[in-house]
Write a structure and sequence with these properties.
Layout lengths: L1 H21 L16 H7 L18 H5 L5 H29 L7 H6 L3 H29 L7 H30 L4 H30 L11 H9 L17 H33 L6 H10 L1 H26 L17 H8 L1 H18 L5 H24 L5 H16 L7 H31 L7 H5 L14
Helix pairs in contact: 4-10, 6-7, 6-8, 7-8, 8-15, 10-12, 10-17, 11-17, 12-17, 14-15, 15-16
């Protein structure tokens, strides 16, 4: 009770402090982006959730100004303007080529229309998944908590029953059914990404909620433990975080103009990606698919794919981690905006993995890496790191395999082989500009490999389909044996 009372007082104090600081006039920012806080400094600022000694919750401070206003710094803003200028050139190039070839301006966006096809089915699938994530885990948790009181005669038996029901729901309703829907209805890639990414996010969210709320029920001495409200759980499902808390720091107002700007930037990034694929990828891979895959063609393909790979990397970062998450955070008045750090300044891959996607990294660290060390009594740190890398690689490969409709573990091999190797070679002790150059070179080359090999396999699957494939045929890449004749359209 003392710990719970102290935790409540600290939360109230920090909320009032954030609200008071939000009303103050901020000091002018310097023209140079300040370096991020170290992990040690960040841990000092974060407040642990005292009701669970094993599960450290962050009381996330209102630190969003440092990253949100990053794109207001003159130097970064200039780079942003350079990308907009490149987009304008892509548009002009497409219009000029279409006018020369067709004799008219072709303004159709057939690739975007194809990629986001069958949107009504996607919306219905997402709505069913969201309602199931909202109702089923929350209801099961409340029913299970009632069986853990002192008056109940068989708490262990009830726990086994509820865990069995929850696992069945997780594997079949949230795991199998969305995958079955996107595969049987032959959804296009972007529509599949929406469903599968929401499926994975739902799995992370419900496991986090149950994992963190279970100890409070087991440690409660009264007949009716204190349980979270539906509004708290609903807020967590929409909040741009994977770490559950009963209460988050909130901003005082919603800047709807800021929300509209971020959503428009997401839409602009989609059109940017469209022109990248239309001008840099599709003409190249259509010609490559005319011949058998060999070493010479693959090497040329990889180096020709570096530029579109780098552009796709920047677009994915800007559209999702900066614009999409910040738009939802602003609409929910979510104060913590530490979705990423200055990963572009990393001199080691270890630091890059920690700073590229802080939302997912925090989840992997606190619910997988740290618990693995806890169970092994901190004796197997390399094994814990390997375990986290494997889980992350499997999830990434599952998303790509379902969304593209074929199994080609390029990303898995890059992640587990080169990613693990660079994580130990390019570690935190590597400092200096040369290591940052090495990291960027590796990133450029890796994304060129990904764009090249997955695009080759995509065209091979279209041009050389197997009518009745066996299990080995599904595992063997079609691009290794497919050769499309020049007379075939």
């Amino acid at each position: 009770d003392l710990m719970r009372q102290f935790d409540s007082q600290v939360n109230d104090f920090m909320d009032s402090l954030i609200e008071e600081s939000a009303t103050l006039e901020p000091a002018p920012l310097p023209a140079v982006f300040s370096p991020p806080l170290s992990d040690k400094e960040r841990n000092k600022l974060r407040c642990c959730h005292l009701t669970d000694p094993r599960s450290v919750f962050f009381f996330l401070l209102s630190n969003h100004k440092r990253l949100i206003e990053l794109f207001e710094v003159n130097h970064i803003r200039t780079i942003y303007h350079m990308f907009i200028a490149l987009l304008i050139l892509f548009i002009l190039s497409t219009l000029v080529v279409d006018f020369i070839d067709e004799g008219r301006l072709v303004l159709d966006f057939d690739l975007l229309v194809f990629a986001f096809g069958q949107i009504p089915l996607v919306v219905c699938t997402w709505l069913c998944m969201f309602l199931s994530v909202l109702v089923v885990p929350f209801a099961l948790f409340h029913l299970w908590s009632q069986t853990q009181s002192e008056n109940h005669s068989h708490p262990r038996l009830c726990s086994v029953l509820f865990v069995s029901i929850y696992l069945l729901y997780q594997f079949f309703a949230l795991g199998f059914l969305p995958t079955y829907i996107v595969v049987t209805n032959s959804l296009p890639p972007a529509s599949r990404f929406i469903v599968i990414m929401e499926q994975v996010r739902g799995q992370f969210a419900i496991n986090t909620f149950l994992y963190l709320r279970k100890p409070s029920v087991l440690s409660s001495a009264g007949p009716s433990p204190v349980l979270p409200q539906v509004s708290q759980y609903l807020y967590f499902l929409f909040a741009p975080t994977l770490i559950y808390r009963d209460k988050y720091p909130r901003n005082p107002v919603i800047r709807w103009g800021y929300v509209a700007t971020k959503l428009l930037q997401v839409l602009g990034s989609l059109f940017y990606a469209y022109y990248v694929f239309v001008r840099l990828c599709i003409p190249q891979f259509r010609s490559i698919s005319l011949q058998l895959m060999d070493v010479r063609a693959t090497v040329l393909c990889i180096f020709n794919s570096i530029l579109p790979g780098v552009l796709v990397l920047f677009l994915a970062f800007f559209a999702f981690l900066h614009c999409w998450l910040n738009a939802f955070a602003e609409m929910l008045r979510f104060a913590d905006r530490m979705f990423y750090k200055d990963w572009w300044n990393s001199t080691s891959f270890a630091n890059y993995y920690r700073t590229w996607n802080v939302v997912v990294h925090d989840w992997l660290y606190y619910y997988m890496y740290r618990d693995f060390l806890w169970m092994s009594e901190k004796r197997f740190k390399p094994a814990a790191m390997l375990f986290v890398f494997t889980v992350s690689a499997v999830v990434h490969e599952y998303i790509l395999a379902v969304c593209f409709g074929f199994f080609y573990p390029v990303l898995f091999c890059l992640f587990m082989c080169f990613g693990m190797m660079f994580n130990f070679i390019l570690h935190d002790q590597r400092k200096g500009p040369i290591w940052n150059i090495i990291m960027w070179t590796s990133l450029f080359l890796g994304h060129g490999v990904i764009i090249c090999l997955y695009s080759q396999e995509w065209y091979a699957q279209q041009y050389c389909p197997i009518k009745e494939p066996s299990f080995l045929d599904l595992l063997k890449p079609q691009s290794w044996s497919c050769q499309r004749g020049p007379a075939v359209d």
